[in-house]
Amino acid sequence: MSVCILGLFAFAVTGCDYKSSNTSSLLGKAILNFQRGLNSVRTVGITVTCETDTPAISTKKISGKIKDTSSLANIPNARVSTDTASSLVTLSDEAGSFSIAGIESTTTDVTVGVTATGYDTLSQKITLTCQNSAVTILISKVTIAAAGVNAMTMDSSKLDDGNIQ
C-alpha cells in the first residue's frame, strides 16, 4: 500500500515545475497538484447554471454545449430533446452548441435526452430554477461491450479472404 502511495506521489511531482527550494513548500505544492488531479475526474451528466433573465420573454430556455466526457471535445449533430408538454427537440451545431426555447414558465423539472452517433444515450432530469439555464452536457463514447459486441469471440479463421473487397 505504501509503495502504491509513494508511486502516486512521485507521479504527482513529476512534470511539475516547482521553482521553490524549500522542501516543505515543494511537498505542499506536490500534494496540492495530486489533489487537483484526483478532483479532475469527469462524469457523464448535465451541469446547470443560471444566466441573466430576459424580462420581455415569459418562457424558459435551456442552452449550452454537448461535450465528450474524456476529451471535452464538442459534439456536433447531437439530438437534444425535452419531455415538456410540447416535447421540444433540436440538434447541436458544429461547435456542440444548442438552444431550446419556449419552455413554459411554470415548468421546473425537465428530463433532457441526448443522443449522438458513437455515444451512449443520456437521459437526465434537471431542475430549472431560472428563466435562462446554461447547461454543459457530458456524454461518453459507446464501448464495444456496451454495443453488445464480444471482442473475444470474433473468429478471423472463418473469413473468406478471396471475397473481401
Please summarize what this structure is.
The chain is α+β, with helices and mostly antiparallel strands. Helix content is 18%, strand content 30%. The strands form two sheets. A four-stranded mixed beta sheet has the order 1-8-2-5, with no helix packed on it. A four-stranded antiparallel beta sheet has the order 4-3-6-7, with no helix packed on it.
Any chance you could write out the topology, listing elements then pairs?
Elements: H1 2-13, H2 23-39, E1 45-50, E2 60-68, E3 79-82, E4 89-91, E5 97-103, E6 109-115, E7 122-127, E8 132-139
Parallel strand pairs: 2-8
Antiparallel strand pairs: 1-8, 2-5, 3-4, 3-6, 6-7
Task: Tell me the number of strands.
Answer: 8
CATH fold label of the largest domain: Immunoglobulin-like
Strand content: 25-35%
Shape: elongated
**Order of adjacent strands in the largest pleated sheet:** 1-8-2-5
Distance between the termini: 53 Å
Summarize the main sheet. Answer: 4 strands, mixed
The chain-level mean pLDDT equals 76
- The CATH superfamily of the largest domain bears the name Carboxypeptidase-like, regulatory domain
Explain the overall architecture.
This protein is of the alpha+beta class. The protein folds into two domains: 2-39, no CATH class; 45-139, Immunoglobulin-like. The chain is built from two helices and eight strands; from the N terminus they run ααββββββββ. It has helices at residues 2-13, 23-39, and strands at residues 45-50, 60-68, 79-82, 89-91, 97-103, 109-115, 122-127, 132-139. A four-stranded mixed β-sheet has the order 1-8-2-5, with no helix packed on it. It has a four-stranded antiparallel β-sheet with strand order 4-3-6-7, with no helix packed on it. Helix 1 (2-13) packs across helix 2. It is elongated. The chain starts with a helix and ends in a 26-residue tail after the last strand. The relative contact order is 0.18. Residues 1-23 and 32-39 have low confidence and may be disordered.
